[in-house]
Design brief:
Layout (H helix, E strand, L loop, with lengths): L1 H21 L7 H11 L15 H12 L5 H13 L13 H9 L41 H5 L3 H12 L21 H12 L9
Helix pairs in contact: 5-8, 7-8
The structure holds heme C (HEC).
Length: 210
């Protein structure tokens, strides 16, 4: 019974998705869609219904996809500024943690799913979208390859800061980015972002030494 319920939710979600790209549903408001979505989900563990609320950036990106109209320049500038303002630099100004812990975080897709134990530390699932090392051959390619990231770019303060910001909130540089906002959305902790940063920059990490 539970399985059937999830199957129905997924079916209705894909219907909503398909329609928003094809043509607007006549007589159906955004409000109607939200009502159906909210009635279809129940909070489980760490997964709360707040996650159905879109951030202003996500809303602008959805509106753009549904209407086929580009986001107006001044709205875009405001969204990028808001995203940048949400970024917190590391409290102790140290950008780099432990690359070994970072590799585990990059490999892990655990966290924020209804099937996860509440309170479990989330992973970054970076390999789902990026090549990072030569040794890991299972990776996605939605994002660019990050192999030799630190080796190619060095570790000047500007590149450390850019990379921290990009991981914290990718929307600060690319509106409608497909990359999760790991810091702003509360997916990874400050220490976890430091560890992933070390994976990208440490000369001894498999990102740079292979
Ligand atoms: C769902 C896919 C997805 C996941 C998961 C993901 N990324 Fe990305 N990432 C992207 C995309 C797409 C881009 C490039 C376009 C953009 O900026 O939005 C990108 C860009 C980047 C860049 C900038 C690269 C450059 O050349 O400037 C860095 C650094 C990065 N990602 C690091 C990470 C790290 C570290 C993780 C894991 C904690 C991660 N990403 C997880 C999709 C993803």
């Amino acid at each position: 019974m539970k399985k059937l319920h999830y199957a129905m939710v997924i079916a209705s979600l894909s219907l909503v998705g398909a329609h928003s790209f094809a043509q607007p549903l006549t007589g159906t408001s955004d409000q109607d869609v939200m009502t159906v979505l909210k009635e279809s989900f129940a909070p489980v563990g760490d997964v709360t219904l707040e996650r159905l609320e879109q951030s202003p950036e996500q809303k602008a990106c959805s509106d753009m996809a549904a209407s086929g109209q580009a986001i107006p320049k001044e709205v875009m500038e405001k969204l990028l500024k808001q995203a940048m303002a949400s970024i917190k630099p590391p409290a102790d100004k140290q950008f780099l943690g432990d690359w070994k812990a970072g590799e585990k975080i990059a490999q892990s897709g655990v966290g924020l799913q209804f099937s996860d134990k509440p309170g479990v530390a989330s992973g970054g699932n970076c390999y789902a979208c990026h090549q990072m090392t030569k040794s890991e051959i299972a990776f996605g390619n939605i994002g660019p390859s990050l192999l030799h990231y630190g080796k190619n770019r060095g570790n000047a303060p500007q590149i450390l800061e850019y990379t921290w910001n990009k991981i914290y909130n990718s929307h600060a540089y690319t509106a409608c980015s497909n990359m999760p906002r790991f810091g702003t959305a509360g997916i990874l902790t400050e220490q976890q972002i430091k560890d992933v940063m070390a994976l990208l920059f440490d000369p001894a990490s498999p990102v740079n030494n292979q």
